[in-house]
Design a protein that fits this description.
Length: 313
């Protein structure tokens, strides 16, 4: 049973917003393209694992959580968590193009690209070890002493992986069912205890809070960001607000095009938005109209009078 789905990562949406808004030719644009590609590849790989898990039928009850953020001392992010009456299992999903060599000392994954370049990344085994430790501690705090297993999953069988000494199983998505069936099947929990644990996991989930673009790339200044509402039909920037709707030169009329623009603003600047900044960004003069737009976008008011700001949560 799938208890929690996966959403497209915030970094991908942030890159979309940045690429829509940065002035053409800005040096950060290339970095955003690269980040977006990585994020999409990672997400695509995780979705392949989700598809296998959605089809998988275990002999006993099983609960599946995708993309889970938990806190036990520090915050940790699990690509996939499975709970059964007998065990918990963490899957660490990797989608790395080129050839991957996993080394023990120092714990690294060296990625060798098609053109022979080498790039060192953190070892997936070390990452899994750390997540196993933290999740065992998390269960211990809740007096649920079930065994915890883990595996590293490479999302595509075409990925070339070498590991001198594999301290954890390395799987491709098709191997996951066999791996899960091979885990000890001695029930430790009753079904109602498993359900209670699943509820605790969901309640403890802390969504990842994406940092805004201008703190990730401090070289991006306000002047680098194009203001204005983007037309949902033609993609042109600078729709005009009149008669309670947005109008574009392409004859598109929208009552809600500001919602996407406000989303862009938060991905880029973050924090609190003032009425004045909102008017400047959307290109409206009327402060009451701006306030209505921010309310209709679901923003929350904080503070009073001229110090009032609007927030996403
Ligand atoms: Zn248009």
């Amino acid at each position: 049973m799938i208890m929690k789905d996966r959403a497209r990562p915030g970094i991908g949406k942030l890159c979309d917003a940045g690429l829509r808004r940065l002035r053409p030719g800005h040096p950060v644009a290339g970095k955003l393209e690269e980040r977006r590609k990585q994020a999409e590849a990672g997400f695509g790989g995780e979705e392949r694992v989700d598809a296998v898990l959605a089809e998988y039928r275990h002999r006993d009850s099983i609960r599946i959580f995708a993309d889970l953020g938990l806190i036990c001392g520090s915050r940790f992010q699990l690509d996939a968590l499975l709970l059964s009456r007998s065990w918990a299992c963490l899957l660490e999903v990797k989608n790395i193009s080129g050839r991957s060599v996993i080394r023990d000392i120092p714990p690294q994954l060296v990625r060798i690209t098609k053109d022979g370049r080498e790039e060192a990344l953190g070892s997936p085994f070390a990452q899994l070890d750390s997540h196993l430790m933290l999740f065992r501690d998390w269960l211990h705090e809740r007096n649920t002493p079930i065994p915890v297993y883990g595996a590293v999953v490479f999302a595509y069988p075409s990925q070339m992986v070498e590991a001198a000494d594999a301290s954890h199983p390395i799987l491709f998505p098709n191997n996951i069912p066999f791996f899960l069936r091979s885990l000890p099947a001695q029930p430790v929990l009753e079904v109602h205890e498993l359900d209670g644990l699943a509820r605790q996991v969901l309640a403890a989930h802390q969504p990842y809070v994406q940092r805004p673009l201008c703190t990730m790339y401090p070289q991006v200044s306000r002047a680098d960001i194009r203001t204005g509402v983007i037309c949902p039909d033609c993609g042109g920037i600078g729709m005009r607000w009149r008669d309670r709707a947005w109008h574009c030169g392409c004859e598109c009329v929208s009552r809600s095009a500001h919602i996407e623009a406000l989303r862009d603003w938060f991905f880029i600047f973050g924090g609190g938005l003032t009425n004045e900044e909102c008017r400047r960004f959307l290109g409206v003069d009327d402060r009451h109209a701006a306030r209505r737009m921010m309310k209709s976008a679901g923003l929350i008011e904080r503070g009073k009078g001229r110090w009032k700001t609007y927030h996403q949560y």
